[in-house]
Design goal:
disordered N terminus, globular, Porin, two-stranded antiparallel sheet, about 425 residues
């Protein structure tokens, strides 16, 4: 009953506030890289909390001199309450869970701070609580909640140095890196497996298969190197090598520089065309990639293997715009993903997903976003699972209460969670706050 009470309270608060909130808010991009959402401080201090870009008005204005000097600091909090209403492993034992995370981001422009042309230093520290509703109640292989990372006070999630070798053309990153964070090309997430409509569990879909492709065995954030090239406008190439045994709780020096040489490598190339329309260009992104994992893995027949390979493809396309302004994001977009992996050591041997997103569907709610997606993992027969697939459908509606507060009710229908039948219905609400 506690979980239901929290869900009802969040929903009631979100709708009441949404009705009373004005409609002249500036649209906020979704699916930016790095993944975690941040807010940008306004030019002038605002005395009204509802009109601020962040809850603290950029640390009571103290952050503005830092921004001007080239140092941006952001703090975000994500709270998620989910309840398994039907099916899965159990609708009684721990079927309602409260989970979430908090993120501290520090982004330093070293050209402004230290006269180092093209230099950048980025830090992301993250803490979290609970492992979500999946382990005790749903049992999904795809993951009904991509945000929880168990009970962790705080970890250095990313700490890397980025250098623009050829400004506007070639960038290199070195350090502790989350490979799904990636770069941007024409405003679209790129390198690796990005999506402008389904790539951020704090602001878009919650289901893990609608955040990243489950056939790609991304390692934990660890020591890595990435090269990103945009030789021609609208076309990019990215390649990375990372520690395949990384543990986000550690620095990466133990696994990355000592012991066996086990690396994860990935290559991606993509196009980001802009299609002509009566209301301005429609931005799209089309990507293909290959990956190789040198990590030692157990085979389902009892043996082991080191070299595993796979491929993937994804696309996202703005289909219709409400307004002519180039930076206005109101309108309809669609996305799709596909992936393949070997069935001898991967429970999910094949994968596809597709969905749509609409920003500003309701009149006078220009910043609200609704998303509908479906994802299916084709399961390996060698893994001994009862069913041949797990399929998840998710619908969410994100209410932009203020610039710094978003409330998103969502519901998922999971078919064959864990490849064992017992279709599950999971309902929840997510609250995102930018401090």
């Amino acid at each position: 009953m506690k979980a239901w009470t929290m869900v009802a309270a969040h929903l009631a608060f979100g709708w009441l506030t949404a009705v009373s909130t004005g409609a002249d808010e500036q649209a906020t991009p979704t699916g930016a890289a790095p993944q975690r959402q941040t807010a940008t401080a306004p030019d002038d201090a605002c005395g009204c909390p509802a009109e601020r870009d962040t809850l603290t008005d950029n640390w009571l204005g103290l952050g503005r001199p830092l921004d001007e000097a080239g140092l941006a600091v952001a703090l975000g909090l994500t709270q998620i309450c989910q309840h398994n209403l039907h099916g899965g492993l159990s609708t009684h034992r721990r079927s309602g869970r409260y989970a979430g995370s908090y993120d501290l981001e520090i982004d330093a422009d070293l050209e402004a701070l230290a006269k180092l042309p093209g230099g950048r230093l980025y830090l992301l520290a993250r803490g979290s609580w609970s492992d979500g509703v999946d382990p005790p109640s749903v049992g999904s292989l795809l993951g009904a909640n991509a945000d929880p990372a168990a009970d962790r006070a705080i970890d250095v999630w990313q700490l890397f140095y980025e250098q623009a070798v050829l400004p506007g053309k070639l960038w290199v990153r070195l350090g502790k890196i989350d490979l799904t964070g990636g770069f941007e090309c024409r405003g679209c997430p790129a390198s690796f497996d990005g999506s402008q409509f389904a790539n951020d569990e704090t602001g878009q879909f919650l289901n893990g298969a609608l955040v990243n492709n489950p056939t790609i065995p991304f390692p934990d954030p660890g020591l890595a190197a990435i090269v990103h090239l945009e030789a021609v406008e609208g076309w990019y190439v990215s390649a990375a090598a990372a520690d395949a045994d990384a543990d986000v709780r550690e620095t990466g020096l133990r696994t990355g520089l000592h012991g066996r040489d086990e690396f994860f490598s990935i290559f991606e190339t993509g196009l980001t065309p802009r299609l002509a329309s009566p209301r301005g260009p429609l931005q799209g992104a089309y990507r293909v990639g290959l990956w190789h994992s040198g990590a030692t893995r157990e085979r389902f027949d009892g043996g082991s293997k080191r070299d595993d390979v796979g491929c993937y493809a994804s696309c996202g396309q703005c289909l219709w715009k409400e307004n002519r302004q180039e930076d206005d994001e109101q309108g309809l977009g669609a996305f799709a993903r596909y992936g393949l992996a070997h069935a001898d050591a991967n429970e999910v041997k094949g994968f596809w997903s597709a969905g749509v997103q609409y920003q500003g569907l309701l009149p006078s709610r220009d910043d609200d976003v609704v998303g509908l997606g479906v994802a299916q993992g084709r399961l390996s027969r060698q893994a001994g699972l009862t069913e041949r697939h797990e399929t998840a459908l998710e619908l969410y509606y994100k209410i932009a209460v203020t610039h710094w507060l978003e409330i998103a009710p969502e519901i998922q229908y999971v078919i064959n969670p864990g490849g064992a039948g017992g279709d599950a219905v999971v309902a929840g609400v997510r609250v995102q706050i930018a401090f």
